[in-house]
Amino acid sequence: MSLVSAPPTSSTATAAATATATSATAATIAKLSTAELMEEAAETSRHLSSLAGRIVLLAAELDRREGWRAEGATSLEAWLSERCNVSAATARAWSHVGTRLFDLPKLADGLCTGGLTFDQVRAVVDAATPESEHAYVAQASECSVRQLGELAKADSDSATSQRSRATSEYESRSVRFNDAARTVIAQLPEASYAEVRAGLEASARSVPSDGETRWDQRVADALVSIVRAGGRRGRPPTPRQAAEPEPSSPDVTPSPYLVVAHVPLSTLTDEESGLRGELEHRGLIDAEVARRLACDATVVVALDDDVGHTMYEGRARRDPTPTQRRELWRRDRHCRFPGCANAIFVNPHHIKWWKRDRGRTDLENLALLCEHHHHLVHSNSWKLSGDGNGELTFVGPSGRIMTTRPSPLWTRVTARPKKA
After folding, report:
1. Quick check: 2 and 338 in contact, CB under 8 A?
2. Alpha-carbon gap, residue 293 to 275, rounded angstroms
């Protein structure tokens, strides 16, 4: 989460924003007739499309100049997410559509004038060419967004050979995890998809059914059992595996992978305790789930202070302990630079430098930074200050002040209880 203190906007920009803003409130809208509501909704949609056209072209020009580098961003998408407070998916869509529209003036004009919606343009922008874009503009008045997408897909398929289509399928393979919904979405080449489906279904059929468990639930159980087995099914066992007895049920197979849960000690020792834990990078879990995880887990005891923060190392050592690193991950989740979502190539950084400022290796003096932003801070062109457990302030060469705070979930579960 980031907050930004920016210089005041220019009078021209303010006047333009005021001119396009409406004074409609819920009270005034409620007084409109149904016909007026419909007409104003359609007119507002055209204005929204026009604004969408402008923002994507502004974004594309900013990307062409790489102007986002001036504020420490690693990409246009990262800058849009931080400066415009939009999701990463929205930022990617703006960037992609804007870049494509530079070569498609008719589609760009239709969007900027409100004749086309952003969804219509987005549906065809990858298939359109300077020679074919006029046909899509004409079709837009007759087709729904879904129909335009189907038309664009058909045009793309007809222009792609079978061999290049297979290559494209392979290059687009992916597995994505949605932590909020706890879903896994896989995009696989045709042959791989058939193999994975056949394997999961065969595994599901091999487990006796009680007649009440749905088929999709049995397939889900098969997926989990294969992951817990560490890929052993279908492979020749190693000498060590061959000597181990095969578990009688997939439900009791211990997982070979690391899953970290932060749990109050009383939750594990007292069956009556209702204190909740936190599954690292995922969210809160209740006491029953925490105790079930602990049954097959290695329990590591970490000494915390009275508000749940892992104890401090002071000047005793420069590198954070493994326990502190886990707590940093739990607190920051990703690079702490505003708008940066990099959660892979990140390392702890001393806010007050260890050698120059004699900073302490305490949680409040540590923050996760990716390699890019770690370099920016050490280049002396950027200044970083504040409390890692609270607010961090970044000031760049332009003088713009940006601030970030820890994960609100971490703040919630480690907050000091209020005294009565």
Report:
1. yes
2. 15
